[in-house]
Amino acid sequence: MGAASPQPPAWLTLDAGSASEPAGVPVPGAATRTRAALHETLARALPLPDWYGRNWDALADALADRLEEGPLTLVVRDAAHLLADEPPAQLGTLLDVLGAAAAGGHGTLRVVLRDHPDRLPALRHRIAAALGGHVGAPDVT
What we know:
Shape: globular
Strand content: 5-15%
Number of helices: 4
Number of strands: 4
Strand order of the largest sheet: 1-4-3-2
Radius of gyration: 15 Å
Order of helices and strands: EEHHEHEH
Helix content: 25-40%
């Protein structure tokens, strides 16, 4: 008998796009296939400060600062494209940065990965692989 599918962390939602788009900052997934493109896209979408260095440490700092202003929801459309042209470890690093920001005691961070229902299983698999085979803590309810 197979194990139950892992659940994403509380701050991360995978969305099949069947309902209206959730409120939040739209991030076009097709424009985030590489690290450089992701950083540029986030710098424009949020917008991030001039000092933003377009690297993972700078993203962590900029998100912490942004969350001091209040809650933030990022809605990544066509999320299957997210860092698709990078090694899987880069997606893991992004998820680590986002998870740390979500747990940082600042305003609430929520990330919605939105895509066609046919592409969500592959995206869920990429996320699980990037996080070492688990997408989040098991549901204990």
